């Protein structure tokens, strides 16, 4: 509620600042002399609009739309502000300011929407491969070039494979992006009981390779065992925390096609419906994933994670490819 009020306050205050600034506007526009009040006004409008729309839209899609609309409006205003035959037509300050950055913003918007998008890892659900503080890159076209908001592929580029680390819109709240590993493809029967994974009747080998103690809070240390697992031709490590249950049935929520799954204290069995995927975290005992909220539709896919480009707490992680 607090952020909602701040967003609408910015939308109200922004135009007031612009109105006051335009009262003192000079006859001929000079970008270097742009009134500071007007700049703050436009900034508040942008922040307010972003805040208001982010309550109903995914931030990635919202970024693209805002940048594209701003660039188009700035270009139109620039064309209207041309000088011809000695008659100068004044260019509105918002348009000149916007156009001066339009190309850069448009390229950023296009790149972030269709090519590569950065993301920060917020939790330990994908340990040991991804840790809190990792900044990663996402290949946005790995599963097709998609229409923003609708997220429908217009240029098919590929399909998720078992073992891919995928970013997607959380089915319970599509404004939030999750990152998990693809375990089940459409039509697969996935069983996970007593911490043993089986896909289509074939057991997935999981071999202990060493201890893995970790702490995100700096207070309590989790004593986990690092396990080596292979899905398809993709080897990766997962974590097993001894003494923790495979599944907490009370945490399973209602989700579309829940009839495709059976849950009990030992784990779950699911048959993945068409055009949907089953995702699990690598830190299996500390992950809010598909065992609790179901399947990820194809039109929720955002891209495939492929690289750690920064971690300010551990520079040695820079450049690590995501397995």
From TrEMBL:
PROSITE patterns: SPASE_I_2 (PS00760), SPASE_I_3 (PS00761). GO terms for biological process: signal peptide processing. It catalyses: Cleavage of hydrophobic, N-terminal signal or leader sequences from secreted and periplasmic proteins. It is found in: Membrane. GO terms for molecular function: serine-type endopeptidase activity; signal peptidase activity. This is Signal peptidase I. Residues 102-310 form the Peptidase S26 domain. It comes from Chitinimonas arctica. Its EC number is 3.4.21.89.
């Amino acid at each position: 509620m607090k952020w909602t009020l701040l967003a609408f306050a910015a939308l109200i205050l922004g135009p007031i600042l612009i109105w006051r600034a335009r009262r003192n506007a000079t006859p001929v526009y000079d970008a270097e002399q742009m009134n500071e009040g007007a700049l703050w006004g436009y900034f508040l409008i942008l922040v307010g609009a972003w805040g208001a729309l982010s309550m109903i839209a995914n931030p990635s899609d919202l970024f693209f739309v805002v940048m594209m609309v701003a660039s188009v409006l700035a270009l139109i205003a620039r064309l209207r502000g041309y000088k011809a035959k000695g008659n100068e037509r004044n260019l509105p300050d918002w348009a000149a300011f916007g156009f001066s950055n339009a190309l850069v913003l448009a390229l950023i918007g296009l790149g972030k929407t269709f090519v590569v998008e950065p993301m920060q890892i917020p939790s330990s659900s994908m340990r040991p491969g991804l840790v809190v503080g990792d900044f990663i890159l996402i290949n946005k076209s790995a599963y097709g070039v998609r229409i923003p908001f609708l997220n429908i592929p217009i240029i098919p580029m590929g399909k998720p494979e078992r073992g891919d680390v995928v970013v997607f819109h959380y089915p319970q709240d599509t404004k939030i992006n999750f990152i998990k590993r693809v375990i089940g493809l459409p039509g697969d029967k996935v069983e996970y009981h007593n911490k043993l994974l089986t896909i289509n009747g074939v057991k997935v080998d999981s071999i202990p390779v060493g201890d893995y103690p970790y702490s995100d809070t700096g207070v309590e240390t989790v004593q986990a065992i690092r396990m080596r697992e292979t899905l398809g031709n993709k080897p990766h490590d997962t974590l097993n925390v001894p003494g923790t249950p495979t599944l907490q049935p009370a945490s399973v929520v209602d989700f579309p096609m829940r009839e495709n799954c059976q849950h009990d204290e030992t784990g779950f069995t699911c048959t993945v419906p068409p055009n949907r995927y089953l995702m699990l975290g690598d830190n299996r005992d500390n992950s809010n994933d598909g065992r609790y909220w179901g399947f990820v539709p194809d039109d929720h896919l955002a891209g495939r994670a492929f690289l750690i480009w920064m971690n300010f707490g551990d520079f040695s992680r820079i450049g690590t490819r995501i397995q």
